Amino acid sequence: MRIQIRQTWNHLFTVFSSMSVVLMVAALLLFLVPMLGKGMSAVFFRGTVEFRKMQHDLYGLGSESTLQKEIAATQAARDDIYAIFDRFSRGIDTDLLAGEAKRLYRDHGDELRYQNVPKDEYTALRKQAKGIRNHLMDAFESVDKAEIFEHLDAVEAFKSDASLKGTSVEKLIAMAADYRNIAETVDFSKRADYAEELDAVEEELFRLFGPRPGVERALAMESYGATRWDVVQKHLHQLVWQESWVLSEDGQQMVQKQVRRDDPKEGSFAGTQLAPMFALVEETVSETLRPRRTFYWRYFVQDSTPGHYFGGVGPEILGTLLLTVLAMCFAVPLGVISAAYLVEYAGENWVIKIIRVCINTLAGVPSIVYGLFGLAFFVEYVTAKQKCITSASMTLALLVLPVIIRASEEAIRAVPRTYREAAMGLGAGKFRTFATVTLPAAGPGILTGIILSLSRAAGETAPILFAGAVALGPIPDFAGKWWFQPTRALSYGCHDITVGDKLAMMVPHNQYGMVMTLILLVLCLNIVAIVIRSRMSKKLRGY
Amino acid sequence: MANITADKEKTAAAGFNRPLRLTVTEDLRGFIAVKVGHSLLFLTTFVSVVAVFLIFFFVIKEAIPFLFKGGLSEFWARMSEFSTSLNWYPHNEEHPEFGALTIFVASLYVTVCSLLIAVPVGLLAAIFLSDIAPFGLRQVCKPVIEILAAIPSVAYGVFAVMVVAPWMQNKLGFSTGTNVLNASLILSLMALPTIISVAEDALSAIGREIREASYGLGATRAETMIKVVLPAAHSGIIAAVILGMMRAIGETMVVWMASGQSAQIPSPWWDLSQSVRTMTGTIAQEMGEVAKDTDPYYVLFAIGVVLLIFTFILNMISEFFMSRFKKTVRGH
Amino acid sequence: MFEVSEITEKTKSESLTMESIPISKQSEATAGKIKLDGPASASQPETPITPERAIIQSRDFSFFYGSKMGVEKINMDIEIGSVTAIIGPSGCGKSTFLRSINRMNDLIPQTRAEGVLSVGGQDIYDKSTNLVNLRQQVGMVFQRPNPFAKSIYDNITYGPKLQGIRSKAKLDEIVERCLKAGAIWDEVKDDLQKSALALSGGQQQRLCIARTLATMPKVILMDEPCSALDPLATARIEDLIAELKGTYTIVIVTHNMQQAARVSDRTAFFCLGKLVEYGMTDKLFTNPREQATEDYITGRFG
């Protein structure tokens, strides 16, 4: 019996141990899958015509003529939608019509003055026109159908007046006829509701199709509609569906429910002239936006504008490469020579012990303290109070120095003593033995260490926070002293787009995209290191 | 009684056609080369020592104006405010207060919470990898641990803010998604690889003999591990835990992004859903906002000094346990 | 045979490497004054080696690892062109002594030598020793085959290249000659660019011997060269040693008494860091002078 209890304990122990590893793997997957998956959508997506337009305008890519043809075609499809919308919105947003009426009335006055009409005739005509205008304005303001038609009738009574032919007043009368058509279909009692909903619809149309042709927006981010299919779908959904509070059952609480705006029963535009537009937008979306599968590899090359709204992470990658490569230039010679000295030349005296303690201490210093040190020493005394690439990469170099020393030391120590003996026995001096036998044999190990510290340096953020990284800024100017300029970097960029950059928060695919780039960079470096390591063990076996 | 000079002439017949004796110039050149080369190598290696001293010197140097600004009389007042007060208002124009106790407590709090998760999981995983997993599975797990360790902290931070925080708010109903629990979870994930690899090394170093002895006496695997191997490897495991602790307490990006940045001690103290602000987070957050050479600037360096000393002591402790462990292993 | 005069300059520059060869102003003087105290009275072989035939002379030579004694007061001459075997139980200092002859023990930290060990008349533990030339002319073959992780060709040419030989034709000639002398030419001649690590253990060991020959040594030290090999490979190495005898002075440390009996002219028996007995091989194995020797060769201990 007792043995069974012990066995059970043993099994439980095994299960728990295995669980912990499963937990670890699950955590890794839980992390990697969303980060890489969502990040991939920055590169692989269905780009719309707006995307191609943006790429052409901002980066000068794509052919002008094909793009113009495409824009013309989509514009034709969009015009139908705009026509329905405009027609309906004229009935709702009558301020526009009122303004137009006022303008026509003013034009009329100008016309008369231009024609040098005698004064009393002028006064009479103006009075007549004013009457028409006022009727029209009253019709626009009123929400009572009978009253509206009354006013419109009053206006249209002048329709047959031949003296008004060709004047602006005739246009006023035409507006009345137009408005009669609208008024017949619109429930004016709901005008205020319509107006509010219409604003939302207009906003969504703008998000889908960008500004109307001929309208120039100052900001690049407001100059284009939905550039990607997932964004299209999101806005399409927001365009067609509304959220409304409904009673699920009598006497129960109100619940939120998604309703189509053109739903015949509950939709806010039920039965209006606008209702067909929603179906039309849905049906023609592939014509109006022309989604096409896009492999946006330029994401890794292009600059971004404005903020991180459009474009890619090119400058960030460049900055990270500059920082890490420069850091390696400082750290690798120091690290490898130190390791060689520690293994090949140094005995075990107190100086060496102090050096070892210092290397361990260096490895244990928190990264943020490196940041402080970089600010207080490198920025202050080495690079003349300039936060720049050099100061940042020197800070990084110090951070990876112990990593490189340890890895190289281990690699050099791992070279069998017989190698050294063989070389020495053949008459090679200590230095030559190291250079021709030990170093080549330790080479892959050292290289692995260097690659791993490269990936560490690429991922570190805290040390470069105060020493030379910026969230947004110009690309280092290679014609000038680029090493004295600050730079963007992937790691700091990742932080900024997540908690700092308001523009980037509107485009989650770009947020995830940058993190994915960083993770991929680091993963690739690590995989290379792993491959080199396995090759190395194979080579030592002699294949 | 042979004289070597005589021998030398005779043995020259042995035909050593390259002289075994250095000429004076060779000797001199060799001497110079060795001395010069040796000192160059030594100086290069000494850079690490210089770097450590520079780090301590400059971080402390920037912290000194905060403590010694008003002379010695004010020094004690400042020190006691810094280390015992809970009021952290360095940016108050009229009455700036520099009570960093909240921040120290928060750092410890987050670190301990993350270790509570990471240590049991890490130890069990180390046991699994050293004693239970078959060889093939171990070969798969090693890269997983390496990748876990390689992922940049800022990427974990983004994960915490963009994936974990919304989940906590929506599914767990926390008032804020960036809180102690979030930061601790992610930190424990980051401390895991350190703990696992060091602990696994310690367990493997114990050797097969002692395990075989235990199995031979009829113990199960669980009993062997818990009663024999773990006690034998305890110094190495303590070192692993301390190294994991160092990783957690020194980590910046994750706690900065995931812990919510509000300088408070959670009340009630076990409420993990509240935001805190740690030492590293404070430095990272405020260094970008303060003007150089002002009190708020200096006080951040003072926090840096505390952090530096703390990790230095932890480092020493871990090295002590490491060397003790190495002695134990060699003793076997 | 390649021209020595041509490479002398290069050889000199070899000593400019990071060797620990500090200058010694008295080197000339000291070397001249060293007395070789007594021709190693008791342990000298019956057939005495005349000083002009003794290529290696050891007088009261002791070697220490830290405070631990490696070998103690060894007095022993080794004849030019002969094969000398050193036998003895494990840890008796035979390898230590062998490795002292070309100062290979320098690689081990905190070691110290006392007494005189002269090679070709030069006290090699004197500061004035040209270590590069010493090790080139006193080659060594190790217990385990230790080819570099390079091609066979590069393994052989490593030494000559150190001596400054760059000409491809000359290197090719050396490779062929040494591989032939090492009795491995027929097995590898088709693919000299193959990694040396891909060879079998016995082939690797013969390659290592060939590699040693390429530096044109006068003395070859062999540290249990067959201990990691199977009997067939061992036999081939033994044949090789027999072939090399005469051209080279060979000192071989071995665990295997039959091997010592088969290949050597003289045998030295070490025990507990001391030279117990040294004499002609057939004499030592059939009629040992010392009781310890007899006990060892008859298998009573060791």
Throw out a few tags for this protein.
heterotrimer; A: 543 residues; mainly alpha; MetI-like fold; 3 domains; two-stranded antiparallel ribbon; 20 helices; 70% helix; 6% strand; C: 302 residues; alpha/beta; Rossmann fold; 6-stranded mixed sheet; 4-stranded antiparallel sheet; 23% strand; globular
What does this structure look like?
The complex is a heterotrimer of chains A (543), B (332) and C (302). Helices cover 70% and strands 6% of the residues of chain A. Chain A has 543 residues and is mostly helical. Chain A has 3 domains: 48-62 and 192-293, no CATH class; 68-188, no CATH class; 317-488, MetI-like (MetI-like fold), CATH 1.10.3720.10. A two-stranded antiparallel ribbon of chain A has the order 1-4. The relative contact order of chain A is 0.09. Chain B is mostly helical and 332 residues long. Chain B has 2 domains: 2-67, no CATH class; 101-331, MetI-like fold. Chain B has 13 helices and 3 strands; from the N terminus they run βαααββαααααααααα. Chain B has helices spanning 4-11, 24-67, 71-84, 101-132, 135-150, 153-171, 180-205, 208-216, 221-232, 234-250, 253-258, 279-287, 295-331; strands spanning 2-3, 88-89, 97-98. In chain C, 35% of the residues lie in helices and 23% in strands. Chain C has helices spanning 8-14, 27-33, 94-101, 131-137, 152-162, 168-181, 185-188, 201-213, 231-244, 257-263, 281-286, 291-297; strands at residues 35-36, 54-65, 68-79, 83-87, 111-119, 122-123, 138-141, 219-223, 249-253, 266-271, 274-280. A 6-stranded mixed β-sheet of chain C has the order 7-8-9-4-10-11, sandwiched between helices. In chain C, strands 3-2-5-6 form a 4-stranded antiparallel β-sheet, covered by helices on one side. Chains in contact: A-B, A-C, B-C. At the A-B interface, α1, α11, α12, α13 and α14 of A face α2, α4, α5, α6 and α7 of B.
